[in-house]
Amino acid sequence: MRWGQVLSKEGGRGIGLWQVKRMVVNLGSDITAANVEAGGARFVVRLLL
Predict the structure, then answer these.
(1) Predicted pLDDT at 9
(2) Per-residue pLDDT tens over the stretch 8-42
């Protein structure tokens, strides 16, 4: 396994979110994540226009 690659509990690789965060930060924008009580997660991306 290389740096930046993480195995999820479903057996996939968590590299997708890492790539999104890198792209958003490079654009000078922001991404946040929070757990949702009913299950899952919520991701908010704020892009500078």
Answers:
(1) 59
(2) 556 556 668 888 889 999 999 999 989 888 888 88
Beta carbons of 30 and 43 less than 8 angstroms apart: no
Handedness of CA 14, 5, 21, 24 (dihedral sign): negative
Structure tokens at 43: 């991701």
Instruction: Provide the token pair at 12.
Output: 């996939």
Please state the φ and ψ torsions of residue 32, each to the nearest 5 degrees: -130, 160
Q: DSSP alpha helices (H): ranges in the chain?
A: 15-26
Which segments of 1-49 are extended strands (E)? 30-35, 41-46
